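User: My instructor asked us to take a sequence, write out its structure as tokens, and then describe one feature of it. I'm not sure where to start. Here is the sequence I was given:
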Amino acid sequence: MEERPLHNTPSMKRANDTSIYKLIILGVLIGMVGVYLRFAGDSTTLSIVSWAILAVGTIVACKGVFKILDA
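Assistant: Let's start with the prediction itself. The structure tokens for your sequence are:
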């Protein structure tokens, strides 16, 4: 019986796609900006905006992870 190499599966090719990792890095960077702004000032408006930016960064990074999982 001939064994198929594990690194040539479609899921491994999809997981090694560089655009997915660029999306995850973008999400992490957006999240870092949100965290920085969260602790940068003591304004209610700045706090709400920073939480929104952090949420956007989290969603972007999770989209990249779910693309790897193909969910």
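For the description part of your assignment, you could build on this observation: The longest helix spans residues 44-69. Try explaining in your own words what that tells you about the chain.
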